[in-house]
Design goal:
2 copies of one chain form a homodimer. By secondary structure, chain A is an alpha+beta fold. In chain A, 24% of the residues lie in helices and 23% in strands. Chains A and B meet through strand 14 of A and strand 14 of B.
Chain lengths: 763, 763
């Protein structure tokens, strides 16, 4: 691998060298291998396919496999597009595809079986090199070396052609999940012989997505033209001009343009800036971030930016442990992404252009996933970004035609994916940890969302204390999720001194109890009339009142009142037995074989790490007498669910959630209940870890001799003093100091760690 | 007719009372009867059809008949849309259609034969009342009285329902020339129960047209929903919500929404503001122009605005003469239209948002038509508007991806219709008459356009001095038009002191000679190799090297060098014979029967007044010894080509060109060569006329006893002094004073008017 080191002086270890962007690019991980800057809106990456597959005689896109546009096992690269979701379970983007070619012009991508029918090319992984902010590959069919790097808003391509005949295709109709008609409109202007501008409007998962761009070229264009795959409905008078040759003002439904330019050193550099606002915004972004800088300069600058982020945490461990740790840390800083021009303008959810006043606007909020660990990790390590993301969410609520905080938000659009109103815990967590003021604006945004009739089943939930199963198919998980979200409103209102609101939401925070079926000791879908679903299977994932998780997993989703939940299970003994069997008893194949989200290697017993509702579950032993079982299972999960290879993520990375879980767990603690200032203590995965916080303080975490055999915690000391708690507070961490874990080969059944973490019932 | 008078006190004659917006609404005129303010972008008018007709088994829109969306003979009204072209020969717009209905919701328009199949309604002309800024009709099928008025940017509807159940349809997929797929995208937001915002993007003649709107309602909406005629390709997670009932955030390819609201007095008022920039721009336009004003107040205000414009000219004459005069004057102030939000922002031809700096931005430039008399009339009567329109054109050139001044420009788009670069004479004319500075910007915009390879045949024209017939089918008329346009550049450069440019374009201004075939004494298409087209027919309109005009008409198109042209014809004797026979010898039907532009009643001999190339021709006798023949034919044209009824315009009004010709000719002079300061004298049509100019000066024109029999001019006096010239200058007119025509029943073959108007050759 050609690493960033090659470019940089000094023998010092570079964290970036451990990042392996290939992890998760095959199968389930849905990560992409391409180039991006930390939190950048541009993710310039190869798309290996997005082509429909023939299903029942009709072409349908393989939505799920190509969420990030790339599958490692694919034999061809279609081209390099500029926007990608990192690790999601649903598809979109892939905007502004560029493919350098030689020989005859082709304006269709062709097929993987017959790449010669289009502009795509074969490639081999031997020629593929990637590191944070850099991607390189050889396009075999053309003998072109492609190098990619990026700033936050600009993708920079460097193509080395086999001769001085430079040529590329710009496919404005390309996209991920590219069903016919997804591209609504495309526009392209040749401003001069080294500058192109344009935009495309798409109707995808992002219902109306405006992607403006500006492309500057290192060599002047000699010839160009385009074809329109969906012929423009009215072209009337336009026929007066020969629009297919060197006509600089192009528009159409799905344009594919080509450009040819003589080169002097076989090299062509393209700088492609994006904007959600306007073409002039894209030009300004280009000017600000990439103008006058060579490919190598941009590459070096972005490599430095990544190194700066990654060296926040210094760990010791095996090479694989370091690779997994730093790749995970890398994956936590791709989405959310900056969605704002350098002048502060951005497109709001109301499709109006706004100017961010005092914050940086972000997008790509996969909140059902990321409220758990991704946002808490950023609130801990990157509080400025944490605050800005929270501010972005409040702006969304204020601009939303529905008055809602984001649910699954991408570019300027609410994507209505998954459930809950989990922007609320993110705001609560940012208030507790990242310095977000608990202002009336924040409380209003939370309250408006948590009482909105557009939240599934909310009217019934308010009236009856649960979402009835007659109302929706995921009523039980909805109720559990709403109750937790409500707790975070309660807690925020309490701290803000709003007693009325606190009381109202404290009441709602206990609603989880309304879906616990006392006869089963498990959460269960309940009808309006108060009766429980008959023939209920706690192991079946779908059709039983839960979303992406069965009752056996989901019933543990009461992070804000674990003690109250234990009572609902029927007491600690039953609770521990349920936890034990979740991890240890294999799940019969019939419960997951039809499920696109779950494969056999994703399972540990019935525990599905690839589906987020499980993420806090291994920590729940902290509220029981068998604390050491957390220590056992956490290491098991880290060993089995994270592997240093292309298939290395056993589940969607979900915009960094899987990765953020790994970072926390490897350090030895986890934010079980976001919004509190507590991190529940597990056990470190690596012997030494040093975290440099934003405030300059350094926390050292030592777990001498930790290993698969020596995985148990005998004793914990904070700054030399034995810890009698099972949690650490946010201020303890960020104050810096020394956190020492004494590790042992056997469980310590008599731990000094006695004080339980927070539970609402225990207040 | 319920006229504005009914609303206004005072017994004084109101010019508005003479305006009959029905003139030209049947057949060829292509005017619309609806409500607009002077130069307003909103033309709120009934569309009687836009439905495709079955041609060869395929549905095709009847583009030509429905250029303004309305044909008087149609039995049904589809609804009321907000944008209309006035008198054009090509179709577009019809944006944001609203139709009040009763009974069951219908989201399709239905057909004229079976209106009950859709939301359209029958109506009768007896219930139809219109005046400047006002339109009223009863929708028979619903018993709804519809009243419409408008400000420049806001259409105001007042509907009186038969009961207190208010209801209307908002069809965002409706449009004029509405082939399938014209509507690219639609968005609609219910901001609150009395405010809607949204936009539609269309791909019509205006290649990419963005129409944003804001609609405020006088009564709160109780229920609403929509259907999407072109189902949204990806609706995925949106299905989570019941988007068809009261879901306030709607988007789709071709949405039709309905709204229901209880009323208290059976009345519903809607204020619909448009913007080319944004929804917030539309809201600001609404606030500025219509908020807090009742329907009657807006109606009165717009009636006053029209009265103010119309009373610039006070005439005596028969009622029909007054009706035709004031209706013509009205028609000259609809297009061009303001295309700018109240804050100065507008969408440019580069699809970027700009702010007009020191001018008002206009659009709808039908320049092949309007450079002749419409723009000169505005430069005379409305110099501020004349300057602003010229500035708008220069801004277009500067923003144009092709660097071109507008040709046929609508909304933010070049429509590539007709020929020439006739923005150039408009700039020249505005510089001579309306105070436009002859700055380097103006000269550069002219020069860039007149040398652009995107102007048809320009490279050959520059090289060879004419557009060769091998290059394009309208090469002869192109050459004539280019030569005139070039003269206006010459004249402007000369006055600006740019000798190099003046010399270059003086040379080009003589290029008309290169297409005069000396053997014929007529303009004729010539090949690259210098030979003339064989089997040439000077009477045939199409296929003979000319556009919308035959050689018999078009050969007279050398307005800047009539004396030079006379020489090309073979001397005055032949020239006069040609003119005489043009007016007097009937054109055989075979020359026009296939032509959508020409009907029998549009002809006077071979003179086609409905096609603009003829417009200056009756004035050309002024360069001959038979001046009196102008006087004869001008009155003939005014009598026969302008009639006070629905069919009253014998040709497209072409954004006011037909009407502006009438105003000039009725006053007794005409700008044969726009760009010069001369108006060639004809003969007044009415006995008395008083023009109050912008500068406050008043010009009185007297032609005592003028009539069909007493149509000849014996003598002309300006301020008591006999005029020996055949023209008046701009400064003479705008200085005010008394212009007296002594009329006679016989030609004065010994006129004191001896001095010829301008000719380049005579300089």
């Amino acid at each position: 691998m050609l690493s960033a080191t090659a470019l940089l002086a000094g023998a010092q270890e570079r964290k970036s060298d451990y990042v392996n962007p290939i992890i998760g690019t095959n199968g389930m991980g849905h990560t992409f291998p391409g180039a991006c800057a930390p939190f950048g809106i541009v993710q310039l990456s190869p798309d290996t396919d997005t082509i429909p597959q023939n299903v029942d005689g009709r072409y349908q896109p393989d939505v799920y496999a190509y969420c990030a546009g790339y599958q490692y096992h694919d034999p061809t690269i279609v081209g390099f597009s500029h926007t990608h979701l990192s690790g999601t379970g649903h598809s979109d983007l892939g905007d502004v595809l560029i493919m350098p070619i030689t020989g005859p012009i082709r304006t269709n991508p062709g097929t993987a079986d017959h790449p010669e029918t289009g502009y795509r090319s074969r490639y081999s992984h031997e020629s593929e090199h990637c590191s944070p902010g850099y991607y390189e590959v050889e396009l075999k069919d053309y003998g072109i070396k492609a190098q990619l790097t990026a700033t936050q808003r600009v993708g920079v391509h460097q193509y080395t052609f086999p001769s001085n005949e430079g040529q590329f295709v710009l496919d404005l109709g390309h996209g991920i999940y590219n069903y016919e008609g997804k591209t609504v409109w495309t526009y392209l202007r040749v401003v001069n012989d080294t500058l192109l501008t344009g935009y495309r409007i798409t109707n995808g998962w992002a219902r109306q997505n405006y992607t403006y761009f500006a492309i500057s070229l290192s060599a002047p264009i000699a010839r160009y033209g385009y074809s329109d795959r969906q012929r423009m409905k009215y072209s009337g008078f336009w026929r007066k001009n020969d629009i297919h040759h060197n006509f600089p003002d192009m528009a159409g439904r799905e344009m594919v343009a080509y450009f040819q330019m003589p080169l002097t050193d076989r090299r062509l550099t393209l700088r492609v800036a994006l904007s959600g606002v306007s073409m002039s915004g894209a030009i300004a972004n280009l000017e600000a971030e990439a103008a006058g800088r060579s490919f190598d300069e941009v590459r070096r600058q972005t490599a430095e930016a990544w190194e700066h982020e990654l060296e926040m945490i210094d760990i010791e461990g095996t090479r694989d442990q370091k690779v997994l740790f730093y790749t995970s840390l890398y994956h936590t800083m791709i989405n959310p992404s900056v969605y704002m021009d350098v002048d502060g303008q951005y497109r709001g959810n109301d499709m109006e252009i706004h100017r961010a006043d005092g914050f940086t606007n972000y997008t790509v909020f996969s909140l059902w996933d990321t409220y758990r660990a991704e946002h808490p990790l950023l609130n801990l390590l990157k509080p400025k970004q944490g605050r800005d993301m929270a501010e972005s969410m409040v702006a969304i609520q204020e601009q939303s035609p529905l008055g809602l905080l984001p649910m699954w938000f991408l570019m300027a659009n609410e994507g209505w994916c998954m459930s809950g109103y989990h922007a609320v815990p993110v705001l609560a967590d940012a208030a507790t940890k990242a310095g977000l003021p608990r202002s009336q604006r924040i409380l209003s945004a939370m309250d408006a969302t948590a009482t909105s009739p557009w939240v599934e089943g909310m009217n019934d939930y308010i009236e009856m204390g649960y979402v009835p199963y007659d109302r929706c198919g995921t009523s039980a998980s909805n109720t559990l999720e709403y109750a937790f979200d409500d707790w975070t409103i309660y807690y925020t209102a309490l701290k803000a001194g709003n007693a009325e609101m606190a009381a109202r939401y404290r009441q709602r925070a206990l609603n989880y109890r309304n879906v616990f079926n006392p006869a089963l000791g498990l959460a269960c879908p309940k009808y309006k009339n108060g009766t429980w679903k008959k023939d209920f299977s706690p192991l079946q994932t779908y059709g039983e009142g839960f979303i992406e998780g069965n009752s056996a997993n989901y019933s543990f989703h009461v992070p804000h009142d674990v003690q109250g939940m234990i009572a609902c299970f029927g007491g600690e003994k039953i609770f521990v037995r349920r936890l034990d069997s979740l991890f240890a008893v294999p799940l019969d194949k019939k419960y997951y074989e039809d499920n696109e989200d779950i494969e056999e290697e994703c399972l540990m017993g019935g525990y599905v790490h690839g589906n987020e509702p499980s993420h806090h579950v291994p920590y729940l032993y902290a509220w029981t007498s068998q604390l050491w079982k957390s220590q056992y299972w956490l290491r098991e999960i880290m060993n089995r669910m994270y592997v240093n290879d292309m298939d290395g993520l056993h589940g969607n990375d979900d915009c960094g959630q899987m990765s953020a879980w790994y970072i926390f767990s490897a350090m030895g603690f986890y934010p079980v209940c976001p919004g509190t200032d507590q991190y529940v203590i597990g056990a470190p995965y690596v012997p030494h870890c040093k975290v440099t916080f934003d405030n300059g303080r350094v926390l050292e975490i030592r777990a001498n001799g930790v290993s698969d055999t020596k995985r148990y915690v005998k004793n914990v000391k904070l700054n030399g003093k034995t810890l009698t708690r099972r949690y650490l507070t946010h201020s303890e961490l960020t104050a810096g100091g020394l956190l020492e874990f004494e590790m042992a080969t056997k469980p310590n059944r008599n731990s000094q760690q006695r004080e339980l973490p927070y539970s609402l019932s225990a207040e």
